[in-house]
Amino acid sequence: MEAAAMTLFAEQGYRGTTVPQIAEAAGLTTRTFFRHFSDKRDVLFLRDREFPQAVSDFMASIPQEQGGVSTVRSGLAAACRGIQNWREQIARRRGIIHSEPALHERDLLRSHHLARAIEQSLTERAIDSEHAHALAALAVTCFDLAMDRWLEGPADLSLEGALTMVWTDMQGWITE
After folding, report:
1. What is d(CA 162, CA 158) in angstroms, rounded to the nearest whole number?
2. Rounded distance, CA 101 to CA 115, Å?
3. pTM for this structure?
4. What is the pLDDT of residues 54-78, one digit of tens each?
5. 54: closest CA among 114, 134, 140, 125?
6. In angstroms, rounded to a whole number, what is the distance separating the alpha carbons of residues 127 and 101?
């Protein structure tokens, strides 16, 4: 379903693609499509449902004795390694989202859900809520900047490498 929709979005644009076209390309009826998705945005943001839980799982695997910043960095690094091989698909999806203003709000919601998952993981580790909230916001900002740097950078740049560079830059900006 996702691959069929992405191909149509790339060929016809997001607005120019209809649900019946997506269903047909995926070999489904429109009725079946609507049993699984509320609209075509749901296909585009399908993996976003899983990502906050995956990050929470990565963070839960980090030893309890690590502090908040270390936990966030380790969790994000593990998440980066988990999606490193999806560069082309992520770039296509991101291009579609950035080209369609109607999708920007949904993308912001993705960032919000990711921040909430990180914040919850940190508070479960007995990090006070204000600290957890700030670290989660910083983590999402760093991740989004790293994603941009990775997708726009050279092919040999890893997402984890881009994250490390952004994190280092962020530390420098904060201490100025």
Report:
1. 6
2. 22
3. 0.85
4. 877 888 888 888 889 999 999 889 8
5. 114
6. 37
